[in-house]
Amino acid sequence: HILKNLFQIIYHVERNNSLLQPLWDSLRLNYRDYLRSPLFPVVLTVSSYFVLCLPFLVCDIMGDRWARVQQFKIQPSRRPTASTLLHCGGVTFYNQLFLVLPASVAQWAWRPPVDLPDQAPSLLELIVGVIGNLLLFDLQYFIWHLLHHRIRWLYVTFHAIHHNYSSPFALATQCLGGWELVTVGFWTTLNPVILRCHLLTTWAFMVLHVYVSIEDLCGYDFPWSTSRLIPFGIYGGPSKHDVHHQRPNTNFAPHFSHWDKLFGTHADFSFSTPLK
């Protein structure tokens, strides 16, 4: 009922003018050359990744010195060591340097600068677009993830590196094989085009997607975690993905829980059994 009233207020306010128009005008008039570059989405997502990883990384490093934070640790007896953090950081930098950077340069050389529309999306359009992109990616990755666990050759060849650790942590988010990183990047780039999203909606989706991906792997279940803010168990969140790393044949969807419930692969944290 509250959400319905909120959407009605937004709709009536935006019938004459978008709440996002002043922000969009400022961006396109003051930063036009940067925003039109094919490199901008790459810079946005990569910088967002490292910035958003930092708070969780500090929590891991501080450990028991931050007792109030550690009470939200899903597996308190398992914390990433310096060597595991360095390993994941190394894999991430390697992927960015030898996969993301060459692809970005090729895209910059091949694609012309994008046009910036004069009109901003309505706030409602942005919200619906972001949710639509998350739901589409959720389906795509659920299928990909399920296949890469059920077909052993795919698991060993492409996905096993992500399961080196049974207790997830933020820097493990992009501790991926090259094929998985390219696939995820492809969907993240293509889906807003499929859904015909405004550029502002696309960028908002990319940043939010980076955040919720990190949150899923962070290893902490804070009171403000997305899964606690969204009711009715619709959203999986860090506790569900933590179960996946303990019981790899469960919880394949990256964000929401409906596909796992439909296909019988859903598992709650309360039923998980930590690995010895």
Automatic annotation (TrEMBL):
Pfam families named among the record's database cross-references: FA_hydroxylase (PF04116)
GO cellular component, one term: membrane
Secretion signal span: none
Keyword annotations of the record: Membrane, Transmembrane, Transmembrane helix
Molecular functions (GO terms): iron ion binding; oxidoreductase activity
Keyword match Manganese: no
Membrane-crossing segments per the record: 39-63, 84-110, 122-144
GO biological process: lipid biosynthetic process
Protein name per its UniProtKB record: Cholesterol 25-hydroxylase like 1, tandem duplicate 2
Species of origin: Seriola lalandi dorsalis
